[in-house]
Amino acid sequence: MIPSSRDRAYFDALYASDPDPWRFATSDYEAAKYAATVKAVGGRRYRAGLEVGCSIGVLSAQVAPLCAYFLGLDISEKPLEAARARSAGIPSAHFLRGRVPADWPEGSFDLVILSEVLYFLSDEDIQETAARVRASLLPGGRVLLVNWLGATETPQPGDAAAEQFLGALALPVAHASRQALYRLDLIIADDEDPTGR
């Protein structure tokens, strides 16, 4: 049985002890991964982008300029302070505290990024998150998953989390890339409304 999703107290404690616990701002691994992420979603403008688990907003600052409206969502308030400061000069960038899937934001998006966040969730929450993504995804919208492939103490491995999400989302993967330490999956919704409305 997969353990429960990591809660707000878990992340609050992490950020209380270290403002950048995963070295998002300084790691060569993170810089290369962010470059691959931006390349995967670049080349077009988005009406509304959503990054789930935006943390201190390093990736947010690179993706928000591609969007007329961008929302970074994180379960903990402390990293959001850094994210807001990092994107202060980007008018489209907004940040909100919330836990997925329970606090899924209102509105529709043509870009949803879940970068190294799914494996912090339980089976049930991954299934519900996939349902929320599908319900809020605009026709022709893109969903980008990035998942760590190394050892982890999270509720489940990155591969398992990604496969479960993809199965629940039930949309075809347009591009998949597997590196030594992470996998990247890009889903592009049909031009038809994915909710069937």
What report would you give on this structure?
The structure is a single chain. The protein is of the alpha/beta class and 197 residues long. Helices cover 34% and strands 26% of the residues. Mean pLDDT is 92; it is low at 193-197.
Order of helices and strands: HHEHEHEEHEHEE
By CATH, the superfamily comes out as: Vaccinia Virus protein VP39
Approximate shape: globular
The top level CATH class name = Alpha Beta
**Tally of individual helices:** 6
CA(first)-CA(last) distance: 35 Å
Structural class: alpha/beta
Major β-sheet annotation? 7 strands, mixed
Give a count of the beta strands, DSSP E runs of length 2 or more.
7
Q: Which residues form runs of ≥5 with pLDDT under 50? A: 193-197
CATH topology: Rossmann fold
Rg, rounded, reads 15 Å
At CATH level 2, the architecture is 3-Layer(aba) Sandwich
Which features would summarize this protein structure in a list?
197 residues, alpha/beta, Rossmann fold, seven-stranded mixed sheet, 26% strand, globular, disordered C terminus
Tell me the layout of helices and strands.
Elements: H1 8-17, H2 28-41, E1 46-52, H3 58-63, E2 67-74, H4 77-86, E3 93-97, E4 109-115, H5 123-136, E5 137-148, H6 158-169, E6 173-178, E7 182-188
Parallel strand pairs: 1-2, 1-4, 2-3, 4-5
Antiparallel strand pairs: 5-7, 6-7
